[in-house]
Write a structure and sequence with these properties.
single chain, alpha/beta, Rossmann fold, 5-stranded parallel β-sheet, 5 strands, 41% helix, binds adenosine-5'-triphosphate, binds magnesium ion
């Protein structure tokens, strides 16, 4: 396979970590660079405890922590020996941000889980996975 850039999108959930494990194995076996991205959606209408709006500092800190948690959990679970990888943390709408990231990096493959950290199991595909499958600029590997 002539893949040079593989993107793995993780929200820290078990399923996205399983997808990231496959992405790391693929990157190792085809000598591709692995880009691991996590996106935190700014909480809309989050007014903190006691009804007071969060300060910019509190909001930034909470978002930073959420990103670090998702990435840390993923990195802890991966065997990255011999893999050329980079991590990226972004703030924004997950699907839109991941699509832009794949475009900017000329990704050859995007690897995602079928579901993520969401708790409402209404659909077989999660909403982020659904949008990625529809709009990704590169092939998508969806891991059950
Ligand atoms: N914030 C995110 N940052 C990076 N990757 C993500 C993010 N959210 C989802 N993904 C990727 O998309 C896959 C599917 O997650 P998705 O969010 O679609 O499912 P869900 O959380 O079960 O459902 P929903 O979010 O619709 O409630 C995840 O396994 C992960 O690979
Ligand atoms: Mg989700």
């Amino acid at each position: 396979m002539n893949w040079s850039t593989i993107v793995s999108a993780t929200d820290g959930s078990e399923r996205s970590i399983n997808a990231a494990k496959l992405a790391a194995d693929l990157a190792r076996s085809c000598g591709a660079k692995l880009l691991i991205i996590t996106v935190v959606r700014p909480p809309e209408g989050w007014w903190g405890i006691g009804g007071a709006p969060p300060t910019a500092t509190a909001l930034t800190k909470a978002l930073d922590e959420a990103q670090h948690e998702a990435l840390d959990a993923t990195l802890r679970a991966l065997d990255l020996e011999g893999v050329d990888y980079e991590t990226t943390e972004e703030l924004g709408d997950p699907a839109t941000t991941i699509i832009g990231f794949c475009e900017d990096n000329n990704a050859d493959l995007l690897v995602i889980g079928r579901r993520g950290a969401g708790v409402i199991e209404r659909f077989i595909l999660g909403s982020v996975a659904d949008r990625l499958v529809h709009y990704s600029p590169c092939p998508v590997l969806v891991v059950p």
